[in-house]
Amino acid sequence: MEAVKKKMLMLKLDKENALDAAEQADTDKKAAEERSKQHEDELLQMQKKLKGTEDELDKYSEALKDAQEKLEVADKKAAD
Fold first, then answer.
1. Is the pLDDT of residue 2 over 80?
2. Tell me: the pLDDT tens digits for 27-70?
3. Alpha-carbon distance 19 to 11, whole Å?
4. What does the radius of gyration of the chain's CA atoms come to, in whole angstroms?
5. CA 38, 44, 46, 49 torsion: positive or negative?
6. ∠ CA 61-62-64 to the nearest 5 degrees?
7. Which 8-state DSSP code applies to residue 44?
8. Could you give the dihedral angle defined by the CA atoms of residues 61, 63, 68 and 74, in that order, rounded to the nearest 10 degrees?
9. Residue 9 has pLDDT above 80, yes or no
10. Per-residue pLDDT for 1 more than 90?
11. H or E, element range at 80
């Protein structure tokens, strides 16, 4: 009878430990999901910023091209 009580107590402790581990795993999962969401939000912000920077680069590249063309025309006129 004593062995049965001891075995039941061990099973009860095992169950409690398993429940604690499951609860901790759930907490860890939620924390990981939150970090993942934050990283996704940060990535979206960086992608928007990159797009804006690329658009700005295109604008300035076009302005530079126009200025170089005007300079070439002015140089040709000055040479003539």
1. yes
2. 999 999 999 999 999 999 999 999 999 999 999 999 999 999 99
3. 12
4. 34
5. negative
6. 65
7. H
8. 180
9. yes
10. no
11. none
DSSP 8-state secondary structure symbol assigned to residue 1: -
pLDDT of residue 66: 97
Cα–Cα dist 64/53, whole Å = 16
pLDDT of residue 36: 99
Looking at residue 55, its amino acid is D
Angle at alpha carbon of residue 60, lines to 58 and 61, rounded to 5°? 60
Alpha helices in 1-80 (DSSP H): 2-79
Q: How far is CA 35 from CA 2, 6, 40, 46, in A?
A: 49, 43, 9, 16
